[in-house]
User: What shape does this take?
Amino acid sequence: MNDDARPAPEPRDLSAHDGSADEAGRQDPSRRSVLWTTAGVAGAGLGLGALGGGTASASGPVAPEALAAAPARQGRTMVGVPFERRSTVRVGIIGLGNRGDSMIDLFLALPGVQVKAVCDTVRDKAEKAAKKVTAAGQPAPAIYAKDEHDYENLCKRGDIDFVYVVTPWELHFPMAKTAMLNGKHVGVECPIAMRLDELWQLVDLSERTRRHCMQLENCCYGKNEMRVLRMAHAGLFGELQHGAGAYNHDLRELMFDPDYYEGPWRRLWHTRLRGDLYPNHGFGPVANYMDVNRGDRVVSISSVGTTPLGLAAYREEHMPAGDPSWKESYIGADRTISLVQTARGRVIRLEHDVSSPHPYSRINSLGGTKGVFEDYPERIYLEPTNTDHQWDDFTKYAEWDHWLWKEHANPPGGHGGMDYIMVFRLMQCMRLGLVPDFDVYDAAVWTAPVPLSHLSIKAKGTPLPIPDFTRGEWKKARPGTDSEKPAG
Assistant: This one.
């Protein structure tokens, strides 16, 4: 259950239902086979007529009205629903690879948080995590490393309040689903699922079980992102007009490294989908700036993509003959560019590129009638202060830092401290019984570009509707990541 993968079947571009998903559901395969069956048929829930949570049609182009349709609500909205107040948050962690191994340190650094159980199919990794727990002065956690199903037993425990899922992408949906069905709140690494019908299932499950299901999007807690957020909400940018976010990160070496991911799971997604595989880091912060799901909503997406040359070229130069990667056929665009429109007429540009030489950038741009901010490098231009057509120094605006960054000026952990800020705030909300900063509706919106960009690229950039996962609740203004410091 770490962020690794197992050998995959022959790759293919599955954009129409071939019956595999239904067949897999009738059998009782091992988690190992489920991992790759699910991944292999990821496209089966994409290019189809009935994506509202029902069964996909046998073939044919996607019907935009079917994409936009919302299934009947099965429970009550989770908008504005607080956590239950508790003095101690008891955590179970599923997945202890690269990301999970680093994040457990942050949970252990917080008062009022106990790690009660850890799970990974690689027992050595689970035992390493357990030693971290005892070294932090907590009782030894239960270890779940029996097989690929053992995470289900972790979720059944009665002494866990929150399950953290940090595994290969294709396992995010079944693990989040299992956690909620067992009465646990769940936080999931990006993306929360790979299919549109799975996003609807998570929304419905959250509403039925009254458990929060959250995309743990750390970039929403970046220092620059939170400063821009507060400035935007204070009106410094005027009426917001446009924004941009991206995940442009050269991962070629890591994706072909047999030790880094302990398997090719991430690279193999480039043999299955053509679109934006990882929109959340760029989309989440800009959606927050624009109060998406809190007064505005995204209504459509149009995507285009370049030819898939980068991974094959890297393989040609670096991988020896006979390496398993030579059996792979890459279809994922080296760079995808998507334009997202909102109900209020705003435009968001999303980019994804992990297959080309490029310095790291999330773009992180926001523009309005009074000026614009652009990141990588950070710079700003706001009227009436700036009138000379020259970028200004963003550090001048430190007074607008979010209270979380003022309270934690030098947070520990990776990614510049945003990981710690995210975990601190989430655990604070759980302990104090507060409404979380974002919810299952945000998770669904931020992840929807994964399947929809794939479909739009296949349809030569045709704009496709983005469902209203809130079922109308987006019209109501409400707080989000731009929170006030709690009294407790």
The chain is about 30% helix and 15% strand. Residues 418-432 form the longest helix (15 residues). Residues 1-60 have pLDDT under 50 and may be disordered. The radius of gyration is 22 Å.
